[in-house]
Each structure stands twice: as structure tokens, then as C-alpha cells.
Specification:
The structure holds 2 protein chains of 2 kinds. By secondary structure, chain A is an all-alpha fold. Helices cover 74% and strands 3% of the residues of chain A. In chain B, a hairpin with a 2-residue loop joins strand 8 and strand 9. Classes of the chains: A mainly alpha, B alpha/beta.
Chain lengths: 291, 451
């Protein structure tokens, strides 16, 4: 009896042990090490000096950090405020009953997201070339006095990045919205129409409440993806661009960690980014809590 | 537990692939390993290494060269130096990689300190002294220089001479603009005199070094906000914006940039010796249409050349030094290598004894029959020395940003007077200098207590 009781008492811990072991080794310990690292200045993995919160203070004093934060915030805002409405608009168009060639359009809009980000960055880099880029060639053909050279990637860096990301991700997010729209209750829409609701009212009062969970999910996904932006500017601008106009938080982290060999500072940037992400996720959760 | 046939297939594949990987024979390479980052160098070294190996009866002293692209080469070297992963005995590294090696304490530099042996063996006399400067950090020389890389001005002689312009009358940059400006109205549209742009960091560095400016002093203290740097930035600003604009952006290694040179839209180019070799390969259509001349000076009697780029051979601390050093000298002080290097790449050797070689006097049809090698060698012992601060990449970016802001200031305010722009350049450079000083102060590994 005693033996079986003893076994029963330890059994849950025994069963939990594999998970706890993996969780500790691969999550808790790295997090702890990363926190220690964030308070150290390092030169490679073996040399480090304890600097307390100096990394965070130096980061706050570094104009590059604020540039990276600003650029990342602009890109994130554009993702949410331009890309998602565009994706939703495309989904609404494709969801119209009786639309011919729906599958073809869906494929066309979705296809850019199948192309690797590096290729997209290279392609847009070539298209926006100041001399012979396709965009300038077209604009010169259409606008008689358009300048012979127009350096998009010097003067409109963020706009160019946002344009490229729209091309890639609008179709991708459209698929989520399309799936959500297809699950909107048709009876509710019909009832609203009979009650005299116009198209806009039906969208706001019937469609939006029904797709809100998907909308929340897509917003969170876009925000997280935008905060992790790296390859697109890195390849398109061959670095951070003039005056760091294309520098993002993750590029800043890469630069400090792998070009300056200071993994401690990079870790501090990583923690800052994590805190930002958690803050945004919590805010988003709070905003959508009533659902 | 019942596994489906698909699951069993996956398990079987996993086991088989693990076994294959485990037993896959890893070729054991004995002897010395030597990494380089360009195929051109490897092709030049191949026969020389063959001779070296033939003369070494002990296979343990044979050298094998590996070509590894710049970025992975840098990553692998840094991994080796910082965390003990396998390293080559010797490696060639390019100047842009150098700051990475010097950004920690001196004891963490993974290259063997060659200062003593270079002085003892008199190599500092045989090799052009300025060539050592990018590889010298905190008074220690960490590499044997591969090149000098003087800069000359390449110009479209077909267009310039057809217009009756005598370039020998050009002594200064002011002369250059005055004499060449009539060429800016080409038959097919506007032409530009020079390929210099605010985003091209190399051009800015070439011009700053030529003028006697730079980023750091001999003690590696930042000197960004110097009078010379401010004057150079102000002059460049008048070249790239406003009514006196003579420059455009024709990017290197780029189809649209190359097209601008081929079409004659850009007339002149700041050309280091290595770039002459690149152009001979990449722009064969310009053969016989170009000539070289010394850079116009910033002031009468001033320096007529500058410097750009560089490569060194370093010996890792883990190597058998005597063996590696013997090979390094065999390779870099080798007359055949020097000749082949020039023939293949246009690069002149830093070894002064070889400068009298008649190969450098041979007319080069690409440069309209000029002896391009000799023209570069005439400038070789005049190239300005450089410094090897680990903060140089940051400083270059900071000064580039200062130039971008200066150009914007000129355009926004319509200020194109050089004196007024110099004052503004000082303000921008002061900002750049403060930022670099802040970064340097924050580095605990480079303080006096931790040299």
C-alpha cells in the first residue's frame, strides 16, 4: 500500500521530468544565459566583462538604436495600416459571389509569397535602380519631364521597402481573410440587407465582428514579422542604406553581435525587442479581450 | 505501439542516413593549409605552391590552398580565433575584414605578431612602408602586405583628346573642373566629369586620404572633424549638387554603372591598380579609349595619388610559425608571383626590388599604349599611410552620413559657396566625431587598462 502511494506521489514528477529537462535545457537556461549576457560586454564567446545595465544605457544613447526603432515602427505601422486593409480589400473582391476566375486571381495574388525574400529584395533593387530601373524607365516614358536619374533607394528607402513587402505579403494575408470571409454567416448578411443595411454597414456591423478573431491573429502575425524585418532591407540596400534609413532592429542586432563581435550588446537588443513584442502582444490581447 | 509503414520508412531513412554520415570518410589533409578569398590569387599561386611542395620531401610541410569567399572566410577565421574551431595555418584577408580582427584586446588578435621578424629580416625596407599600415595595430604588424594599390585618374582619352584638351595642364582639382567642364555637354545629352557620389564611401576615402585627411591619427584617436576633412567634404558637396555639379553615381560592378562609362556619360574614374585589372576584364569595350594620369592635387604641388583596398597574408597563432613564415616569404617575395599578379590583375607588388622589372614598362593597349604598371609604380612610394582602427567602418559610415547631410543642407538652403559649406561640414563632422568617441569610450576591451 505504502509502495503504491509512494509511486503515485512521484509518478507525475517522473512523467513531467522529460518535458522539464528539455524545457530547462533549451529554454530556461538559454534565457538565463542570455540575460547574463545582456549585462556583459563580450568579444566573441569566451571574453566578457560584466557591465551591468550599461548595454541598455549605451543603447539608449546610440542614435542608431533610435533610427532602427523608428524605421521598424514605420514599417510595422505600414504593415498594419496599409498592407492589411489591402489584403482585406483583395479578399472582399475575391469573395464576391459570381466572380469569374476566382482561383486564378487567388493564385496570382498569393504567388509573390512563394518567392524567397532574398529574390524579391534583389528584384526590387533592380527595378528601383536610379538609372536603368524598370520603375524609372516606365516613369520616364509616361511623364515627359521625369528626371533621367531618380534614386529611389536613397530618397525613399522606407517607401520602397513597404512597397516590396506589400507585393509579397498582401496576397499571403489575403488568404487568411478570404478563409474568414467564407465562414461569415450568410443568413446574418441577408437579414441585415433586408433590414436596409447598406454595403458599408453590413461590412462594419456583420462582417467585421465575425472576422475579428482572424483579424487579431493576422495583425499580431504582421507585427511580429515586421519587428523581425531583416533580409529585405539587408539585400535590397546592401546594408542599412544611406544614413541608416533602412536600418531595422534585427539588422542593428546583427551588426552589433556579428560585425562588432559584441554578443552582450546584441543580447541586450534582443531583450529589448522581446519586451517590445510581449508588450504589443499583451496590448493586442487586452484590446480583443471582450471577444 | 503500432507504427505505420510510412513511419517505419522514415525511421529506416533516419538510421541509414545517420550511419552513412557517421562512417563517411573525411579526407585527412596533412600539411599546411592556406586560405585565400579570390580565385585570381589561387590561379597565380597554384604553380608556385606546386614548386614549393615539389621541393619539400616531407608531405607534412606541403601547402594546400583553398579559395573561400570573403564572408565565410571572415566568419570562419573569427570563429577559429574566438572559439577555437579549426583554423588555416595562413590566410589572405582583405582590408575590409581587418577591423574585425582588431576590435578586441591585443591578446585576442588571432594573427601572429610579425613586428620583430619583419624588422629583423629587413622586410620593412624591402616592402613599401605604407603597405604595412592597414595591418599594423597598436604598434604591432600582423600581416605581410600583398599590394600597394595606388590610385590614378582614368579618363576617356578618345573624348578628351578629340575635344583638344591637354590633360598635362591639369595640376589641381580646380584645374580639372575648369579644363574639363566644356565636355559636360555631350552630343547625346549631359556628361559627367567624375564618378563620385555621397553614398560611395570609397571615393570619399580616396579623396580624403589624398588631401592628407583621414579618420584616425597614428594613436588611433578619431580625427574626423579636421580642417582637411571638412574642406574635402565641402568640395565634394559642390561637385555632387547645385550649379557646379560635375559628378554622378555610376556604381562599381553594376551593369548600369558600367554602361555609363561605356557610353561616355562618365568621363573620369578614380582608379586603383586592382580596378584597372577589373575593367580590363569587365569592360573590354573601353580598350584603347582610356588613359591614366595622376590624380589632380588638392593644392599646387600636393599629392597626386591616393590609396584604396589591400590584402595581407597572416599567420594564425596556432600555426607552426617557422614553417608558415618560410612559405609566406616564398610566396610574397617571389618575383614570378609579382609578375603574374601584374599580368593577371594589374596589381603592382609592394616589394620595391621588383619595381624595376621591365614588365611594368610594357605598353598596355587597354590604356591606349601607356605603360600602366610604370604609372602606378611611380606613385607607389607616395601613397598615404592608413590606420587600422576597429572603429574605422563606423567612422566611414559616420563621415558618409555627414556628407549626405551636407549635400542636403546645400540643396535645402541653396548654399554652394565652399567656405560656407566648410563651416557646415565642420558641424556635421563634429557630430560624427562625438558619436565615434562615444562608441570608443564604451568599449571595455580597448581601454588603457585592457590593451
Amino acid at each position: 500500500m505504502n509502495r503504491s502511494l509512494g509511486s503515485a506521489r512521484w509518478m507525475p514528477y517522473l512523467l513531467l521530468a522529460p518535458f522539464l529537462l528539455v524545457f530547462t535545457v533549451f529554454l530556461v537556461y538559454p534565457l538565463y544565459r542570455s540575460a547574463v549576457l545582456a549585462c556583459s560586454q563580450t568579444f566573441g564567446p569566451t571574453r566578457h566583462v560584466w557591465v551591468g545595465f550599461d548595454n541598455f544605457l549605451n543603447m539608449a544613447r546610440d542614435p542608431d538604436f533610435w533610427t532602427a526603432l523608428k524605421n521598424t515602427a514605420i514599417f510595422t505601422a505600414a504593415s498594419v495600416l496599409i498592407q492589411l486593409p489591402l489584403a482585406l480589400g483583395l479578399a472582399l473582391i475575391l469573395n464576391r459571389p459570381g466572380l469569374r476566375g476566382r482561383a486564378i486571381f487567388r493564385l496570382i495574388f498569393f504567388m509573390p509569397s512563394l518567392v524567397g525574400l532574398v529574390f524579391v529584395a534583389m528584384m526590387f533593387g533592380l527595378m528601383l535602380d536610379e538609372h536603368d530601373g524598370l520603375v524609372n524607365v516606365l516613369l520616364r516614358a509616361v511623364i515627359p519631364h521625369f528626371p533621367g536619374e531618380f534614386p529611389w533607394l536613397e530618397h525613399y528607402v522606407m517607401a520602397s521597402l513597404i512597397l516590396a513587402s506589400l507585393w509579397i505579403y498582401a496576397g499571403f494575408n489575403m488568404v487568411y481573410f478570404l478563409a474568414a470571409l467564407q465562414s461569415v454567416n450568410q443568413d446574418s448578411l441577408d437579414a441585415a440587407a433586408i433590414d436596409g443595411a447598406n454595403v458599408w454597414q453590413r461590412f462594419i456591423y456583420v462582417i467585421m465582428p465575425e472576422i475579428r478573431p482572424v483579424l487579431g491573429f493576422v495583425v499580431l502575425l504582421s507585427v511580429i514579422g515586421s519587428l523581425q524585418l531583416f533580409e529585405l532591407p539587408f539585400v535590397m540596400l546592401s546594408g542599412a542604406g544611406p544614413e541608416n534609413s533602412g536600418l531595422t532592429m534585427v539588422m542593428y542586432l546583427y551588426e552589433k553581435g556579428f560585425q562588432h563581435n559584441d554578443l552582450g550588446f546584441a543580447s541586450a537588443i534582443g531583450w529589448t525587442l522581446t519586451i517590445l513584442l510581449v508588450g504589443i502582444a499583451l496590448a493586442q490581447r487586452r484590446l480583443t479581450r471582450h471577444e | 505501439m503500432q507504427l505505420s509503414s510510412g513511419s517505419w520508412t522514415i525511421v529506416a531513412l533516419m538510421v541509414i542516413s545517420s550511419l552513412v554520415l557517421f562512417f563517411w570518410p573525411i579526407p585527412h589533409r596533412s600539411g599546411e593549409s592556406f586560405w585565400t578569398f579570390t580565385l585570381d590569387h589561387d590561379l597565380i599561386y597554384e604553380p608556385v605552391i606546386g614548386k614549393w611542395n615539389a621541393g619539400e620531401p616531407d608531405a607534412g610541410q606541403h601547402v594546400t590552398a583553398y579559395v573561400i569567399d570573403k564572408q565565410p572566410l571572415l566568419q570562419r577565421l573569427q570563429s577559429g580565433f574566438l572559439s577555437g574551431t579549426p583554423l588555416p595555418n595562413m590566410a589572405e584577408v582583405e582590408i575590409s575584414m581587418a577591423p574585425t580582427f582588431f576590435s578586441g584586446p591585443l591578446s585576442a588578435v588571432g594573427w601572429t605578431d610579425l613586428t620583430g621578424v619583419i624588422h629583423r629580416e629587413g622586410l620593412d625596407q624591402r616592402i613599401d612602408p605604407a603597405s604595412f599600415s592597414p595591418w599594423t595595430n597598436r604598434g604591432h604588424i600582423f600581416g605581410l602586405p600583398h599590394d600597394v594599390h595606388p590610385v590614378l585618374l582614368a579618363y576617356r582619352s578618345d573624348i578628351v583628346e578629340a575635344a583638344g584638351i591637354d590633360v598635362s595642364t591639369i595640376q589641381t582639382w580646380t584645374d580639372f573642373v575648369r579644363v574639363m567642364k566644356p565636355l559636360m555637354h555631350g552630343p547625346d545629352g549631359p556628361r559627367y566629369l567624375l564618378n563620385v557620389w555621397e553614398t560611395n564611401q570609397q571615393d570619399m576615402e580616396i579623396l580624403m586620404l589624398q588631401a592628407g585627411g583621414g579618420f584616425f591619427d597614428a594613436d588611433l584617436k578619431p580625427v574626423l572633424n579636421s580642417d582637411i576633412n571638412a574642406q574635402v567634404l565641402a568640395r565634394i558637396a559642390t561637385w555632387i549638387a547645385g550649379p557646379g555639379c560635375i559628378c554622378t553615381n555610376a556604381p562599381d560592378f553594376d551593369a548600369s554603372g558600367n554602361n555609363m562609362f561605356q557610353s561616355g556619360q562618365v568621363l573620369c574614374y578614380l582608379m586603383p591598380d586592382w580596378m584597372s585589372g577589373v575593367w580590363m576584364k569587365d569592360l573590354p569595350g573601353l580598350s584603347g579609349k582610356l588613359k591614366l594620369m595622376p590624380l589632380p592635387a588638392w593644392a599646387p604641388g600636393g599629392l597626386r595619388t591616393s590609396v584604396m583596398g589591400g590584402t595581407m597574408l597572416g599567420i594564425s597563432k596556432s600555426a607552426n610559425f617557422a614553417q608558415s613564415w618560410a612559405f609566406a616569404k616564398y610566396l610574397y617575395l617571389n618575383h614570378d608571383v609579382a609578375r603574374e599578379l601584374y599580368r593577371r590583375t594589374g596589381i603592382i607588388t609592394p616589394v620595391r626590388d621588383f619595381w624595376s622589372d621591365p614588365i611594368y614598362d610594357q605598353p598596355n593597349p587597354y590604356f591606349s599604349g601607356q605603360p600602366s604598371g610604370r604609372l602606378y609604380i611611380q606613385m607607389a612610394d607616395k601613397v598615404p599611410a592608413r590606420t587600422s582602427s576597429p572603429f574605422k567602418p563606423d567612422a566611414v559610415v559616420a563621415v558618409t552620413d555627414a556628407l549626405i547631410r551636407l549635400k542636403r543642407y546645400a540643396q535645402d538652403t541653396g548654399t554652394y559657396d565652399e567656405t560656407l559649406l566648410t563651416l557646415q561640414a565642420h558641424r556635421e563632422l563634429a557630430r560624427a566625431q562625438t558619436e565615434i568617441e562615444r562608441r570608443m569610450a564604451a568599449n571595455a576591451f580597448l581601454t588603457a587598462a585592457n590593451p
